[in-house]
Amino acid sequence: MAPSSKEVLSELQETAQELLSRLKSHHLFQSEWDIAAFVVFLTFTGTVLVLTLLVLLYCCCCNSSSPPKRRPKGVDNLALEP
């Protein structure tokens, strides 16, 4: 059964009050696991941003308008020439 809108609203208010009280007390993290999870989240977000920046730099700054030159593979068999 789905929770009613009043229950959801009260849960949101409780969560907001808890967050505000943590901000006021300057104790955002209650345990070592909270700190570790936050570090993992920041590392993941930073990695995604750096990779996105690298892709944008590669797409915008590399002027490769001509297609790459291909070298012929194998050996020419001159005996088959007429």
From TrEMBL:
Asked whether the keyword Coiled coil is assigned, the reply is no
Membrane-crossing segments per the record: 35-61
Q: How does it sit in the membrane?
A: Single-pass membrane protein
| Keywords assigned | Membrane, Transmembrane, Transmembrane helix
- GO CC, one annotated term: membrane
**A Pfam family for this UniProt protein?**
SMIM5_18_22
Q: Where in the cell is it found?
A: Membrane
- Report the main location listed first in the record: membrane
Domain of life of the source: Eukaryota
Q: Which InterPro entries match?
A: SIM_Modulators (IPR053081), SMIM5/18/22 (IPR031671)
**Signal peptide location:** none
What's a BP term from Gene Ontology annotated to this protein? positive regulation of cell migration
Recorded protein name is: Small integral membrane protein 22
Cite the source lineage.
Eukaryota, Metazoa, Chordata, Craniata, Vertebrata
Gene name, Swiss-Prot/TrEMBL: SMIM22
